[in-house]
Amino acid sequence: MKIAYDAKRFFHNTSGLGNYSRDLVRILAKYFPENEYILLNKNQSERGKDILENPDVRFAETSGGMMARQLKMGKDAQKQNADIFHGLSGELPLKWDHAPIKKMVTIHDLIFMRYPQYYSFFDRKIHLWKFKKAADSADKIIAISEQTKKDIIQFLNVPENKIEVIYQGCHQAFKEEQPEEFILQTRKKFNLPDRFILNVGTIEERKNLLNIVKAVKDTAIPLVVVGRKTKYFRKIQQFIQKSKMEKQIHFLENVSMDELAVLYKSADIFVYPSFFEGFGIPVIEALFSKTVVVTSNTSCLPEAGGPDSVYINPGNAADISAKIQFLWKSESERQRRADKGFDFVQKFNDEPIAGRLMELYRKIIS
How confident is the model at residue 47 (pLDDT cuts 50, 70, 90)? Predict the structure, then answer.
């Protein structure tokens, strides 16, 4: 079987969609090396270079010209005699020729529909048009959570039997033990407190970092934050300065994947009070790291967190504070929940996810 992918995100996105694309191709190549995996894009990058070393994975340059991704990539996949074209980020090419090919698309979330205030009018219209077009032309749609499946049915008016829920996993670094020397180097490099709570994710309004900062105000609990800053960061900075919390809140930059794994494993608690997510990969990363999770009781987050994470109302800083302080003071409770969470998260391991994907590929061409 030959599967062609829209590899724009594979080569050029550092986080979310890029990680999903690279992990998907990596696990399929590992567990099903008898197939051919073709990465279509106008160019390559250093990202994913190790995956391209697999003999069953290859890069294919797409045709040039204006809007080539939309107008020519589909035909390029057909010229490669691909059996399936899989769009990994909610989009499919608009033009195809007559050669037989099955079309599949992964839709990660429809947050722009649920929370339109976070997006410009123009972005909302473009996203909706692209996603609706892809959903209509796909033979099958992969939703990365039950929450996303519900949203696809509601907002894109897609029949339920066209959608399969296949969860995504996370980077291998979170499942491995880092050497003790590297752990010490990382702690020293970032001048980490002896004990701390951790938050990871883009610093934007939807991710709700401000309510974590409010939750630890008037406590001695250090907070370490890893994430790209947006204009929302200014609001947080103002609150920190006004509350004289500069020494309590630590913002880290240029953190590698292995260093991030050390941060997760070193944290007492991982806190993720997002208002809405398509899936919530950081929750999975924390659970694989055997770190207890405090997260929102909304959207897909209970799907990712399982029965032993601690759930809060993301809009209620007092609730977040109470749950953090309860866990901070009880090592046995942290350990108990972390152990149970580690058992739960095994369902997001590479092999079962690769198996579900391959089962769907085989079903679609049978």
Answer: confident
d(CA 42, CA 63): 7
Query: How far apart, in whole angstroms, are the C-alpha atoms of residue 286 and residue 224?
Result: 14
| pLDDT mean across residues, the chain | 95
Q: Is the dihedral of CA 47, 51, 52, 58 positive or negative?
A: negative
Residue whose C-alpha is closest to residue 147's, from 277, 265, 282, 319: 277
Domain count, the chain: 2
Helices (H), 172-231: 180-189, 209-216
Helices within 32-145 (DSSP H only)? 68-71, 73-79, 111-114, 121-137
Domain of residue 207 covers 172-347
Nearest to 74 by CA among 99, 49, 37, 57: 99
Burial label for 237, CB within 10 Å (0-12, 13-18, 19+), is middle
**Residues β-bridged to residue 250:** 224
User: What digits encode the pLDDT tens for the residues 209-238?
Assistant: 999 999 999 999 999 999 999 999 999 999
270 & 360 share domain: no
Is the predicted pLDDT of residue 19 greater than 80, yes or no? yes
pLDDT per position as a tens digit, 56-103: 999 999 998 888 889 999 999 999 999 999 999 999 999 999 999 999
Is 215 found in the same domain as 261?
yes
Residue 6 shares a structural domain with residue 53: yes
- Per-residue pLDDT, 296: 97
In which order are the strands placed within the sheet that holds 2-6? Answer: 57-61, 36-41, 2-6, 84-87, 102-107, 140-143, 163-165
Same domain? 360 vs 278: no
Contacts of 18 (CB under 8 A, 6+ apart): 9, 10, 12, 47
Q: Indicate whether 16 and 163 sit together in one domain.
A: yes
Residue with token string 């953190």: 255
CATH of the domain at 57: 3.40.50.2000
Helix (H) / strand (E) element for 20: namely: helix 16-31
- CA Rg, the chain, in Å? 21
